[in-house]
Amino acid sequence: MSITEPLTGEELEELEVLSQAATPGPWHVRFLDDDYAMNLVAVSTVPDTGLGERWPRFDHHEIVAATLVQQPRYVDCADELWDENARFIAAARDAVPRLVAEIRRLRALEESRPSA
Length: 116
Known about the structure:
By secondary structure, the protein is of the alpha+beta class. It has helices spanning 9-21, 82-112; strands at residues 28-32, 40-44, 63-69, 75-76. Strands 1-2-3-4 form a four-stranded antiparallel beta sheet. Strand 1 and strand 2 (40-44) form a beta hairpin. Helix 1 (9-21) packs across helix 2 (82-112). The two termini are 30 Å apart.
């Protein structure tokens, strides 16, 4: 599949199934920091408080994903786009189902138009 090819019905279905199976949204970016996960950039089910909580003062059950765990180096991408990746992942949680629905709506609209 190339990025310029239209999504097939099967691909739309797969995206919908994946999004329905994932933890419900919305998701938020959180900046946490502690001795076990230095500079943790996480995707969470609750918003960031701005306090940079240290474990155990945040509930680990709220964390969906991490884009940076600097010390020890568990998660650390080479391009250093931790914050940007976390924002994208968090936004995708709500955007993907909406995009699938919009594609289906537009395709149905196109199919309902009389042929020329």
